[in-house]
Design brief:
128 residues; globular
Length: 128
Amino acid sequence: MMETNMIPLYVKIIAGVFGLVNTGYGIVGYFQPSHTFENSTEGVDMKGKGARYAAFEYSSRNLAIGMGIVVAVVIGNPLSIALVTLVRALVEIQSILINIALKKFNEGFTTAAVFLAIEIFIMVKMFM
């Protein structure tokens, strides 16, 4: 594990931007819950409470993890950054496995794979 003052600036910037993107994605979900569901809202009734609540829960998770990453980067503790990024990586792994199980290799799969690559990069840099 590296010391707080030894974290490269570019890693802090990448992690911070990544945290802000996750935060923004979570905020958008509160105002546009239909973005949560793939293929627009085909087959999902967004007027019903169940679908809206599911979208809000998904958005709150992204918001909380994104804010956690931002706070960890501001504090600058490498272990904190690595742990919060690991939590986010577990979400991406889950999304990838769901897409594989459904045999859907679409934008959801690609986004999760790209985000997972960024998260792995951040975690590796915290231990090098």
